Amino acid sequence: MMSIHTLIQRAAGTGRGVEELNGHIAAYNIYETADGRFISLGAVENKFWQNFCHAVGKSDWIDENLTEAKPDNKVYAEMAALFKSKSFAEWTRFSLEVDCCMAPVLETNEMLNSALLKDKGLLTGIMDGQPPALGQHNGEIFE
Question: Would you say 87 and 34 are in contact if contact means Cβ atoms under 8 Å apart?
């Protein structure tokens, strides 16, 4: 998820990335769920933001796509309350049903067992087998 941010900040030479992609707007943020877990929303593109707004019954938010993620901002406060009104599992199902660029924030063990990563073969060889013994590859390295 951070590859785009890294490329942008390296190109800009700022080290900060793009303000809209740093959690400064409500449409691109991480929200706590009712059970203390987290969901990421990356609805920067209008189609994703509109899909999200319609799906949660908040069409009045559509023009607020760049609203600031500050507690005193009415829309952001309402969004935070909305996310806290449902469980992690409920929002995860929502993210699979609504095309709004939303995903659960997984714990390490959940990520390692993720069907998405397994299906794409992204973990192949990374965690297989036991770690090498101390000095096991010294000959290969120092030849």
Answer: yes
Residues 103, 93: Cα–Cα separation, whole Å: 10
Sheet holding 38-42, edge to edge: 28-32, 38-42, 102-104
- Say which residue, 34 or 129, is predicted with more confidence: 34
Q: In whole angstroms, what is the distance from residue 72 CA to residue 86 CA? A: 22
Contact 69, 29 (CB under 8 A): yes
In this structure, what are the phi and psi dihedrals at residue 41, rounded to the nearest 5 degrees? -120, 125
Q: Tens digits of per-residue pLDDT, 36-56? A: 999 999 998 999 999 999 999
Distance CA(21)–CA(23), nearest Å, equals: 6
Using CA atoms, how far residue 123 sits from 4, 104, 143, in Å, is 21, 19, 30
